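Notes, Module 5: Reading structure tokens.

Key idea: the token line is not a picture. It is a compressed description, and you learn to read it the same way you learned to read a sequence, by spotting repeated patterns. We will look at two proteins. The first is printed below with its tokens.
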Amino acid sequence: MSNSAKAEGVLALHRFGMGPRPGSIAALGSDPRGALIAELERPLTLSAAASLPTSAKAYRTVADANARRTARAKQAQQQQAKKQQMASGAPGDQAQVRPEGQAQGYRQEKDAAEMAAKQAADAIPDPGRPIYLQEAKLRTEAALGAEIGFAERLVWFWSNHFCISANKIQSMSGAYEREAVRANALGRFVDLLLAVEGHPAMLFYLDNLESMGANSTAGINGNRGLNENIAREIMELHTLGVRTGYTQDDVISFANVLTGWTLVPPGADPQHGGEFTFNPRLHEPGGQTVLGKRYEQDDVEQGRAVLRDLAAHPATATHVATKLARHFVADEPPPALVEQMAKSFHDTDGDLKQVAITMVSSDEAWGGPPSKLKRPGEWVVGMVRATGITQVDPVLYTGGQQLLGEALWRPPAPKGYPDDEASWIDGIGRRLDVANNFAERITAMADPQAIIEDVFASQIAPEVKQAVGRAESRQQALALLFMSADFQRR
């Protein structure tokens, strides 16, 4: 293989994939672009996913555990109260106790009851954390095991674009990505949009469970009103983009359209709790006007109709194309590339696979130097892939992600994690700590020279080769290699 083919292969694996791993450059052959496109034809399913619960099942599991914890805590408090009552003696004895002593006794009794309740509740573990870690392990190992990782990167991109937060809905976070994002990441944008906005995790995250129309049955009888969060984020972040012509009235109308989109309470239905449902008692009756179009449906189809029109809007094509190009190519992507991708989106009715093919087929996507700083998650996976490791300890892995400021499925806001260098450059020092720690753990099994020559096909900057060769130890050599621009940038 020529050096130019090797160089383009390394660029393909960094810019569009998950980074080189043993044998990956050779597998690309002389046509890296063709190899990227070929990967999109393979299914995105996860072989081990069948062992994990659905999002609804995970939600019910956590809800059931919480209910048992509450019951155990109440039982413990009651038992502690009985013990205290028996120990207090006859009522007449209490009259001899001074007021300050009586108050102290009450505090001690209260503290004892609270301690007993906490210990009883803690005896039932929270199943949400293990479910989260299992999902994290499956997702990470899919990225480590992929030949190139282009398709996995697209899953990561769309998961961040349509983000939720495990801080708010931990039990569903991984299953949401599998069910809504992964299942539609290479399909039509409208199907992806319908899947994510109708998923219980998104409805929970953006507070739509709290939203009800003012003139709905529940709105008239209750004391809660309209919540605009999901309507605003769909327009501003998920489809049209900011400053694209929609108004506050459009947001309010769209929020009314989405009233009634909720989930089945787990206590109300043990078999279907946590699943999506449309509740007409919460839905604002009557037609609504959004972006100048009237929607007269009186059920769940009203919201789906608006989503379909948002997916087909020209501003959505431009917004999606810009974000994709910014993520994969450059913080300031070439305008010609964005235009090509937006046209592909429009011409194919939002076929996301074709938009991705348009991107990697364009010379504009390959012309710039590897100057884009990798996000922490990309860098960590690239570092691990280079060693040939394909299995991870999810506790260590997610801990490292959190240390680097990109905790898995925990973005700080609905706009997701940022994709520009300015947002991540200050964290380089923390990357050094992670690189040193990882290098120490793999020193016995990873040879830095082998990574340079075999994994990267010697397509590493001469000064990096020199620094690695002069390192005082293998651990230091690995850390220097992992911290080099060849690993940090794409």
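Here is the second protein, with the sequence above and the tokens below, as before.
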Amino acid sequence: MTGHEQGQLHELSALEQAAAIRAGELSPVELVEHCLARIAGLNELVGAFSYVAVEQARAAAVAAEKRLGERHAGDELPPLFGVPTAVKDLTGTADMPTSFGSAAFRDFTPPVEAHLVRLLREAGTISLGKLNSAEFGLSAYSDTYAGSARTPWDLTRTAGGSSGGSGAAVAAGLVPFAHGNDAGGSIRIPASVCGLFGFKPSRGRVSNGPLGLDPVIQLCQGPLSRTVADAAAMLDAMAGPAPGDLFWAPPLPDGESFLGWAGREPGKLRIGRFSDPGSDEVSVHPDVLAAYERATELLVSLGHEVEEIEAPFGLSMVEEFQDVWSVRSLRVPVADEEQLLPLTRYWRTRGRSVSAERFLGALQDIQLRGTQAMIATQRYDAVLSPTLALPPQRPEWFKELGEEADLKRQFLASPYAAAQNVSGQPSANVPLHWSDEGLPIGVMLTGRLGEDAQLLALCAQLEAARPWAARWPDL
């Protein structure tokens, strides 16, 4: 290795790692070994990985190095060749366990893998394992049989959920970017509490197949990363429909890429903003409002037109959301429910009590609200809001008073992020602010349905104006 110091490898972005490998300045084996050493030293602290695929990762790195050595002039390498990553444990992998964050499935390996897992491999990435997830993706924190995912910015606080392991892994420098998925904020919540860029694409942008059954059509797959460009490159690798998908997002024109859009100026945009959480029960923390105001000031300074709007989704529909989520919790068959966490058992018990009429009525109500919100905001290129109503919290705060209080506190912390899953719009957490305590406080930008590329361009402009990737937690 000639161009980079070993101790600084994890501080390179995914695209910088790929470029160094192509230039012969960095070996895939050295890079993978560096990441595995960091996982061995830090994973017990941050609870990022539920399964570390040591031998598989090493074998893939050796194969990548061999391919480099045998390459002839002009041979094309995949765009992310040799770059380490990892996959959230809710997503099927046929070559390593997929536990869905549950002790009931800790030894389960699916017979088929998710399409996105194959696509990431074909893009050249090397998976280091599976990332801790809230059990069945049902909570805004990630405490499971595999450990408690903690934000590296304060190890007493949760890394969020349900993609908490993904957020912890990237924030701690265990991998440069990671896969997550999001059915109610599960990419954007961890991104906010871990100080990362997290991108939930438009519905149908990335395939959920072949095992990603989602009866309420809220689930999306997306990246968590330190930079917008890395997220865009990962989205380029994963994007595209597959046979059997119920929804297909319109593709980019030939010759364009999301990474290319992340390097474009977005032009002058019209942006709506709101901070009303839609419920008198929610008290938005002053640090959150400070981050929101600073983001507004930055957008205005960049020439965008920002105006106040009413909360697009109106009053929060807590009961309707909980009815839908409780029924959704039953989509995974479980032989022995005593192995499940108390909150998961609570969700499933509630789900069995919801009648078909009540479920369909709740689903229809929230989908109608989503449609009305998109109509109300159609004249805006993007909408700004807080990502969360509270700074990162201790996981014990959610759990200490039982399951009903747990759900109430999850709503008090995260009243904003589920709505975009109903509407299907692209939505991103942008890590523009840290509190006086040193805690990351994100803001959320949401674009029009299908206009992921323009949203990425706007987020990249904000990153260029107020860079955040050089900030690292003290681990």
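Summary for the second protein:
- The chain has a mean pLDDT of 96.
- The longest strand covers residues 427-434.
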